[in-house]
Amino acid sequence: MSQTHQLSDQPYGSTLAAVLRLSGAVFSICLSSLVIWIVRQPTSDNHTYCDMISDKVYQLCHHDKTVSSELARDPSQSPEKLFHKLYHENKLKEKLVETKQSTTDSQDVLQRAYECGNWGTAKPSNLFLKIYHDALCTLDKNPLGGVVSPPLMGSHGVVPLTIVAPLPDLCRHVANCIARAEKEVFLGTNYWIYSDASTLVTNAFRELSRRAGERGSKVVVKVLYDRGSPQQLWDNHLSVGEKQYADPNGKVRLPPAREIPNLDLQVVNYHRPIFGTFHAKFMVIDRRVALLQSSNVQDNDNLEMMVHVEGPIVDSFYDTALISWGKVFQTTLPMLSSPAASAGIPSISAQHSQVESNEDLRSSLPEHTTQDPHYDSDIQHEAQRVNDTIRPRAGESKSQAVTRHLNTTIQRDTTGDAPDSDQEPPMRPYMTLPPHKPFPMAVVNREPWGAPNHTSIYTPQNSAFLSAFRHAKHSIFVQTPNMNAEPILQALLDAVRRGVTVTCYLCLGYNDAGQLLPFQNGTNEMTANRLYRSLHTDEERSRLRIYNYVGKDQTKPIHNKYKKRSCHIKLMIIDERVAIQGNGNLDTQSFYHSQEVNLLLDSPLVCRIWLEQINQNQNTAIYGAVSTEDGCWHDPVSGEIPKGSIGIDPGRFSWAKGVVGAVQRVRGRLAYKPRSLLKRRLHIKSSIIITNLPFHRPESTRSFNSMSCPYDKPIIDITQYVFHYNIDDEKAWSAARVALLDAMGCAIETLFTSEECQKLLGPAVPGTEVPNGFRLPGTNLSLDPVKGAFDIGTLIRYLDHNDALGGAEWGHPSDNLGAILAVADWLCRASASGRCKHTGPPLTMRTLLTALIKAYEIQGCYQISNAFNAFGIDHVILVKLASAAVVAWLLGLTEEQTLATLSHVWMDGQPSRVYRTGANTIPRKGWAAGDACMRAVHLALLVRAGQPGAPTPLSSLPFGFYARTFGANGFEMPRPFGMWAIQNVLFKVMPVEGHGIAAVEAALVQLGKLRARGLGPECIARVEVRTTRAADSIINKRGQLHNAADRDHCIQYVIALAFLKGSAPEARDYRDESYWARSEELASLRERIFIHVDEHLTRDYLDLSKKSIGSALTVHLLDSSELPEVLVEYPAGHVRNPATARAVQEKFAKNMRLMFTEKEISEILQEVEKDDLLIMDFVELFARQSSPDPRL
Predict the structure, then answer these.
(1) From residue 144, how far is each of 60, 327, 430, 450, 460 by CA, in Å?
(2) Is 811 found in the same domain as 878?
(3) Which strand (E) or helix (H) includes residue 352?
(4) Where are the transmembrane segments (predicted)?
């Protein structure tokens, strides 16, 4: 921004009006507090949940008229009166018709909710329908409580853009949408204060007027805001004249008519004294686009959120806008007869990917400011322009660029202290979503009223909030400025006690003074303290994760009183599938008094992207965790609470601070500045808190959050990925199923064919049986999860036949299945038997595949550019790392405990590659992966038992992993964690070390050419092999080969074997007793095979866009002729080879036939497609009562 607008001290209206407004506001707050005290705040238990949507509500939703449709018929009506006329109970009774008999069958309940919405071709999830059902039920008491015509409450649409950014970025999108308007604009906001933010908007009105003039048209604009006035005691909707709203010295300063001659502007000031605030913030443009945001129109230091929606759902917002406006329109809205549902959904530009992909190559677009506006033609170019501002300028670090962008208007001098490493992934204010089909949405609003008898708490918003918490099965994520509404707190505690993981991002000190008013229920710190004290066990407390907001350029929270880094986002995401976003905070004002507009939506895609964007654009998850001992954030070094913090004891006369703070808040000034507080240490004396929650807490409880410093960023990044990344790509799920079956087939092959491996299996003490233990496939063994992880991990890997992935490091991602399957099956059996209470994710096929995909990704991304082999470390270090991460999640450990588990991985002494090298090559290379799986499980179980982690095992000096082993530069991560690895592995359709497969295929092609000439391998003088540097490093071996482990990692051996045998190698061909192991002919030919590193093949091997694994063979014959070179870049098993899918299927079937019938194999293939299949039922499909080895 190029300038800052100072708030004028001129009163809005007369001095008497200002005094009345201030005193009225204080009276309103105090009276509301008194009423709450008299009636007593309800809890979540006081909310009644209907078993079935009543006939009345069903008919409301199927009413043939809406406020919008009736205004289109007769625009002269008052929308507010029309709303009452259409849906008031007395008017509705005569319209009721008989409907099917209500039952309480769950499917009937959901079906009835389904029939009360317009979902298009989309199918709502059960979770969405449950929440929607409960929101609808509130209409039985008050059909007007949702501030929308009931037939429009449930709908569908798309979300092409989400903004998580400082407030000016949201106003930039508002400005662009206004400038692109054709017919009409409706803008509703709580605060409108002259500022840089408002200037961005008013500039856009001027631009819209200019464009309308060029078109020869006029655009209708309606602005609705809430600025309390004594006149609203008898007229809630005050018309605001131009003299007031365009006063050049006033606090609004909308453009006068002469500056916008082609706009028809009408302004209304809406407030319902004493208990009703218009707290909504939304906009509708041309009845085709709706914007729903957390922000007002005023300058502040907040991080805010805006959602851009299109499709039929826009009609719902439009209806809410009409009802909120209330008054008869001076000028009719042109789009009253043109609903969004009858028009196409504006499509995302076809240039979307191009704009995004060329980001690093193009020059930055100039910033859109109040002094230098730049209006874009579409969302994609808007996003490009705003996201460009985060790119560092000359001389700027990445963190300094973020600080510059966050320092918007009132906090220009704030400095950041976050390291540049915190800027990966980078802040991305505008997130354009990939094209997607319309999905179910519903508006869940709240009317602006708080009746003394509290009947108004039964609103769609409140019921949706509580229902979402009540129906959550796995996870709840919440970000809100304040959280102190009593029913909300009770519902969250209930969820935690059910085993749900609850994560809350709260703003430190947001409106602390106002929250100290009597019976407003306290500050965020007081709330966090209450919640933790109400949980009785460490296990319960571990599932409640409360954080104070930390800016993207900061390493600690800053109290809201300083107006430097605050957060005003209002969002909840349930089970990573359903979200509620909008205006409503989780505090007493939003829950009991204010009009709020919120959007309930049903999309795993959007939820995943929102979680990513939320965490990408702040450092809250990294630095913001509060102590579970007192609910306060403490400096990791000093233990002090932040400067300005009230803590959990506001002291005497806290109500007086609240009154002063409320007055100053109404006057638009900064909140009351509490007295300086003495520095407080971690152990704080308990305070007297007004609450009806029980206070029980063991004195021995200790939080991991009291660590002296934050964990190393690579550890945090893995944890964030495991807990917060949502997988929604069907290709990834399909690839994971293939990988799972391939690995299981490899395990069965090893079990049946390798006596050497069989000797490693089973309990350490023969005959030991573990009740409800892991059932080792192909056997009747029941093992503990540690030994089980070793056994199944070893079976998968031993014959070197499982999948592989290359890079600077080479590895086998399916090795991780050893840890995943053993733990998941054991947990499933133990919890089903009642021997343990599982607190992690559901133990189903979908969870198994999720863990597998994420383990592949962690190992795969580390392998790309980090050569552990260069330091003599074996690649199974990455198996231990990835397995530990997902096993911790499977066990139900907290994020903090997962961080601790991963820290132990890096503290371990790591395995040496010596057992894969030269004369030291021994069978250990076959059980090294099993060993890594076993260690990963053991470490996670130790942490579950209470062992803490060490926060800096990588960066610590002088003994950290970087300093002693890997080098100060640390790890290089060329791509963020996602779903890449599972879709790019090499399936080994022959038991050959992966770098040698292409060479074997090329050898077989050359053998065919030899035979075509009537020649054989005996005619070969020498073979020249061009291959990758990785192949040369790993499998180029000359001299004596000592055992099977040595032979299967020798490229010359497998090439010679292919020439002499005439087919691909098999596992038995490597054994000591094999004919080929003793063949002098093979040994002779092996000595005549020469390996050459080819830089071009090496580059293609490392290129993530190609990932070839090529080798080329030229055969020189004894008669001095030669066979032209044969190059194989993508051998069978590579994702780019079209023969891969069939080859992998045939490999699985061939391996399974060693121990299973065709019918059993067919059943496995059918069952693996079922997402809800229990893991123990899947494993049971591989069980055998007898084993190849009698010992087993």
Answers:
(1) 11, 16, 35, 13, 10
(2) yes
(3) helix 352-357
(4) 12-39
Residues in the chain: 1192
- Kindly report the number of other CB atoms within 10 A of residue 180's CB atom: 20
Last residue of a domain, one of 1108, 1131, 1154: 1131
Q: How many helices (H) and strands (E) does the chain have?
A: 42, 23
Question: Chain-centre distance of CA 1114, in angstroms?
Answer: 51
Q: How far, in Å, CA of 914 to CA of 927, rounded? A: 14
Residue-wise DSSP of 1040-1085: ---SHHHHTT-HHHHHHHHHHHSS---GGGGSTTSTGGG-HHHHHH
Q: Residue 120 burial by CB count (10 A; 0-12/13-18/19+): exposed, middle or buried?
A: middle
Residues 1068 and 919 in one domain: no
3-class DSSP state for residue 1116? Answer: strand
Q: Check whether residue 826 and residue 959 sit in a common domain.
A: yes
- My answer on whether 727 and 873 are in the same domain is yes
CA distance 84 to 127: 31
Domain that holds residue 968: 714-980
pLDDT, mean over the chain: 87
Asked whether the beta carbons of 485 and 43 are under 8 A apart, the reply is: no
Domain boundary among 1080, 1109, 1131: 1131
Residue 1021, both tokens: 């003088």
Per-residue pLDDT of 395-446, as tens digits, reads 999 999 999 999 987 778 899 999 998 898 899 999 999 889 999 999 999 9
| Statement to judge: residues 962 and 1010 lie in one domain | no
796 in any annotated domain = yes
Say which CATH number the domain at 722 has. 1.10.4100.10
Q: Which two tokens stand for residue 1187?
A: 């084993």
Please state, in angstroms and rounded to a whole number, the distance separating the CA atoms of residues 525 and 649.
9
pLDDT above 90 (res 817): yes
Backbone phi, then psi, for 154, in 5-degree steps?
A: -105, 130
Q: ∠ CA(646), CA(647), CA(651), 5° rounding?
A: 65
Q: How far apart are CA 884 and CA 1124, in angstroms?
A: 49
How does DSSP classify residue 466?
H
What integer pLDDT is reported at residue 230 of this predicted model? Answer: 85
Contact 933, 815 (CB under 8 A): yes
Q: How far is CA 930 from the centre of its chain?
A: 31
In a domain, 875, yes or no: yes
Q: Which of 182-196, 358-372, 501-515 has the highest mean pLDDT?
A: 182-196
Sequential DSSP letters for 369-433: -SSS----SSHHHHHHHHHHTTS--TT--HHHHHHHHH--SS-TT------GGGGSSPP-SEEEP
Q: Which amino acid is residue 1122, in one-letter code?
A: E
Pair 1062, 943: CB distance under 8 Å: no
Q: Is the pTM of this model over 0.70?
A: no
DSSP 994-1029: GGGHHHHHHHHHHHHHHHHTT--GGGEEEEEEEE-H
The number of angstroms, rounded, from the C-alpha of 648 to the middle of its chain's C-alpha atoms is: 31
Helix (H) or strand (E) holding 384: helix 379-388
Cβ atoms within 10 Å, residue 360: 6
Cα distance between residue 1124 and residue 840, in whole Å = 58
The contacts of residue 1084 (CB under 8 Å, 6+ apart) are: none
Residues 738 and 762 in one domain: yes
3-state secondary structure of 272: strand
Q: Is residue 1146 part of a domain?
A: no
- Based on the fold, state whether residues 919 and 999 are members of the same structural domain: no
Distance of CA 933 to the CA centre of its chain: 27
Number of independent structural domains in the chain: 2
Taking the C-alpha atoms of residue 833 and residue 16, their distance in angstroms, rounded to an integer, is 73
- Report the run of H or E that residue 1150 belongs to, with start and end: helix 1140-1152
| Contact status, residue 557 vs residue 645, Cβ threshold 8 Å | no
Q: How many CB atoms lie within 10 A of CB 1105?
A: 5
Give yes or no for a contact between 779 and 752, defined as CB atoms under 8 angstroms apart. no
834 part of a folded domain: yes
997 within 8 A of 1131, measured Cβ to Cβ: yes
